[in-house]
Design goal:
binds magnesium ion, 392 residues, 6-stranded parallel β-sheet, 5-stranded parallel β-sheet, 16 strands, binds 3-phosphoglyceric acid
């Protein structure tokens, strides 16, 4: 991979715009897991030390484009980051109109997804962003799989562009880990929707030896196996696809295991009463919120027997303590396993923090979807754009 790196450039007195991935979980206006913010600190500090005027860009969540909303404001991130950096971080709301920033100062631009054209990668928008900086630093590994105006587009037009230290390190570590991995290679993919991960699941199947699905994705697979999932979050329209993937796994001599037991409740809340049920006994008014103990033990054994474990996404609603046991079992098994383990994704990082197992994971990536697409062997558009600029 060849691209210019931030440490090769003179940043003194320059307006240095760094695309970050500050898409962190929030609760009641506070950051509940700051792993992605901490991962960004060395880059920001380096830029400040080198005399840059630092401009930070990030998205947060998936707001309606073109509309400001408090819910998706980066204000809590600005506040938290200011605490970590021990210096003011000014949140700039109407940043596309231009703003002042001096060397040694940090400005955080409000959620890039409030701008129309961000996700469709409008050239006009990317060009405006490009005029606001002297140097654009792509450091958001977690968003490098999105060809958006603030990731791929701006790279084509900014005066100078380079990769930040976090992005460089992520790519280096993942390439090292995935070249000739120790077998069997087990991948755990959680998350709410099959639809957003369909192609990932499909191409992973040919690259890995075992695949465990969790969360809402697992619910669709449970339904696809003929069980009633009651009120669970699942995607009825994708049952056929799930069946096809189960069939593909069988053909390759493997399986996508279906939980034998699950933890259910009649409401989605942190105080909901949890009940363990065999997977074929879920009531019509219940929703599946975690895997049961038998299933957790089976998955833990699979982890113990693996040579490489890739973990992206929890298997239950671990934020609620009654439904955290499944994800905790996965986390504990990874912690004690001798397998080379890689974990990534916003929720996964939050789970690693919550269960305090960071020291037992070989490599922790800040990427979720980006990390999976990398594992899948796809070219990340923002990285491709950096490479294209390097060649010119
Ligand atoms: C992530 O959390 O995976 C990244 O920040 C990308 O977010 P997105 O899936 O909303 O594009
Ligand atoms: Mg370990």
């Amino acid at each position: 991979m060849s691209f210019l790196r931030m440490d090769e450039l003179d940043l003194t007195g320059k307006r240095v715009m760094i695309r970050e991935d500050f898409n962190v979980p929030l609760e009641a206006g506070r950051v509940t897991s700051d792993a992605r913010l901490r991962a960004a600190l060395p880059t920001i500090k380096l830029a400040l030390d080198r005399g840059a005027a630092v401009i930070l860009l990030s998205h947060l969540g998936r707001p309606v484009e073109g509309e400001y909303s408090n819910e998706f404001s980066l204000a809590p991130v600005a506040e938290h980051l200011s605490g970590l950096l021990k210096r003011p971080v000014k949140l700039e709301k109407n940043w596309l109109d231009g703003f002042d920033v001096q060397a040694g100062e940090v400005v955080l631009c409000e959620n890039v997804r409030f701008n129309k054209g961000e996700k469709s990668n409008e050239e006009d928008l990317a060009r405006i962003m490009a005029t606001l900086c002297d140097i654009f630093v792509m450091d958001a590994f977690g968003t490098a799989h999105r060809a958006h105006a603030s990731t791929e587009g701006v790279i084509r037009f900014a005066p100078r562009v380079c990769a930040g230290p976090l992005l460089s390190r992520e790519l280096f570590e993942l390439e090292k880990a995935l070249t000739d991995p120790e077998r069997p290679m087990l991948v755990i993919v959680g998350g709410s929707k099959v639809s957003t991960k369909l192609t990932v699941l499909e191409s992973l199947m040919s690259r890995v030896d075992e695949l465990i699905v969790g969360g809402g994705i697992a619910n669709t697979f449970i339904a696809a196996s003929g069980y009633d999932v009651g009120k669970s979050l699942y995607e009825p329209s994708l049952i056929h696809e799930a069946q096809r993937l189960i069939g593909m796994a069988h053909k390759e001599g493997g399986e996508i295991p279906i939980p034998k037991d699950v933890v259910v409740a009649t409401s989605f809340s942190k105080d909901a009463k949890a009940q363990v049920r065999p997977v074929d006994e879920v009531h019509s008014d219940e929703m599946i919120l975690d895997i049961g103990p038998l299933t957790a033990a089976k998955y833990a054994t699979m982890i113990q027997n693996a040579g490489t474990v890739i973990w992206n996404g929890p298997v239950g609603v671990f934020e609620f303590k009654n439904f955290a046991a499944g994800t905790r079992a996965i986390a504990d098994a990874i912690e004690i396993s001798h397998a080379f383990s890689i974990a990534g994704g916003g929720d996964t990082l939050a789970a690693i923090d919550q269960f305090n197992i960071a020291d037992g994971v070989s490599y922790i990536s800040t990427g979720g979807g980006a990390f999976l697409e990398y594992v899948e062997g796809k070219k990340l558009p923002a990285v491709a754009a950096l490479e294209a600029r390097y060649k010119i």
